[in-house]
Amino acid sequence: MNKVFGAIARYFKQTDRTLFLFSIVAALYGLVLVYSATLYYNKGGLLNRTIIVQTVAIVIGLALMILISKIDYHTLGNYWKIIAVLSILLLLYTFFRGKGRAGSEDRSWINVFGITIQPAEIVKVLFILTFSKHYDLVKDDIASPKNVLLLGIHAAVPIVLILLTKDMGMMLVYVCIFLFMIFSTPIKLRYFAGGAIALLIATPFIWNKVFGNTQRNRILALFDPTNPKYAKQIFQQNQGISALASGEIWGYGLFKGPKTQSLYSSTLPERQNDMIFTVAGEELGFIGCVAIILVLSIILIRIIVDAALSKDEMGTMICVGAFAAFAIQIMINIGMCLRVLPVVGLALPFFSSGGTTTVSSFMTVGIVLSVFIHRKNLLFADSNDE
Quick one: signal sequence residues (predicted)? Predict the structure, then answer.
């Protein structure tokens, strides 16, 4: 027993304790909100499967976070080609065999031994790792058009595969991760200018051919929310805004929100998933929402700090990718709840229900902790070389 406690003490001495602990705080806070949001499942005495899945996902995610953090990210990076190929195969399988959720056009979910998972969430962590390693290998010749093109292809392959499954929200996350990471490199601005021009030219095609009717209407509804034509697309956000506003400063109290505790799921659709932020707003008020933003902000700040503390560019790049993954999902999810961004089905990291997204969030923190823990080994190695 003393050995176990000794090992735990040594781990906490090595790791970024703030990032570690606030990730757990976020997950536990989210679990309470998900429990409240799914109480209506239990009105007839039924077992709340969502809470069981969420609790198991937190335990698995926490274990993976610790395991990944203990492995040197350079060691993981040595297998980047194998990891990249496996990621592509997983996304290809999702394209051919994926299924969607009710009311959604995407096919981003697969069944594994009776468990439904979203592969793009897991591949997201692997993409951050493989892209960071790829850049680390070519950074000395980053001005070469060939290397820029290869990095672009590295990002384009998973983005296109996710696009083919019609998971626009996750595709946007990957695009933003790529942009954040590539902007942190010394690549010349002309490449970005060329990409911006290409995107501008492609915009009409994307709008008409890539976006479906539901996605276009969700965007248009934001500019004309009272138009009956868009009533179906804006209904979820209107209900969310109503719940948020009614909570005022302190909220109705935990487990007492009228919309959150309604017996009808349509009263506040996807309350445990996309709309978990509105659950906090209705039951815990403005204070509850600020608490969510504060906890997530601390996580983001610590990732930035760990990026600055990294002793090599691969570690910095990993942290930049992790920051981008969290930041864009936080911004879009809260933007959806506030009706300033269209609904794209993105979870709020650590807070929304969903086993895959919870495990993915912990894995993302795990790879950042690996950068923090193993920076010392690299520092000592540099000192010995001198």
Answer: none
Domain boundaries, the chain: 22-376
Residues 6+ apart with CB under 8 A from 187: 142, 143, 148
Contact 342, 215 (CB under 8 A): yes
Tallying the residues shown for the chain, one arrives at: 386
Angle subtended at Cα 45 by Cα 41 and Cα 49, rounded to the nearest 5 degrees: 50
CB 43 within 8 A of CB 263: yes
Tokens of 67: 């395991």
The pTM assigned to this predicted structure is 0.92
3-state secondary structure of 107: coil
**Residue 29 contacts residue 312 (beta carbons within 8 Å):** no
Quick one: pLDDT at residue 42?
65
Q: How far apart are CA 352 and CA 347, in angstroms?
A: 5
- Buried b / exposed e across 54-81, counting CB within 10 Å, b at 16+? bbebbeebbebbbebbeeebbebbeebe
Q: Are residues 66 and 291 in contact, defined by beta-carbon separation less than 8 angstroms?
A: no
* Contact residues for 207 (Cβ-Cβ < 8 A; gap 6+): 216
Complete DSSP assignment for 268-317: STTTTTTTHHHHHHHHHHHHHHHHHHHHHHHHHHHHHHHHHH-SSHHHHH
**pLDDT digits over 46-64, tens only?**
457 888 899 999 999 999 9
Q: Among 277, 288, 345, which residue's Cα sits nearest to residue 34? A: 277
Contact 251, 243 (CB under 8 A): no
Tokens standing for 281? 């707003």
Measured N-to-C along each axis, helices 355-385 and 17-37 cross at an angle, to the nearest 10 degrees, of 180
CA angle 109, 111, 112 (to 5 degrees): 130
Q: Helices 49-70 & 355-385, crossing angle to 10 degrees?
A: 10
pLDDT digits (tens, 9 = 90+) for 201-210: 888 887 887 7
Residue 322 has pLDDT above 50, yes or no: yes
CB atoms within 10 A of CB 195: 13
Using only C-alpha atoms, the chain has a radius of gyration, in whole angstroms, of 21
Q: 15: which DSSP letter? A: S
Count the neighbouring beta carbons within 10 Å of the beta carbon of residue 257. Answer: 26
Phi, psi torsion values for 272, nearest 5 degrees: -85, -10
d(CA 307, CA 67): 20
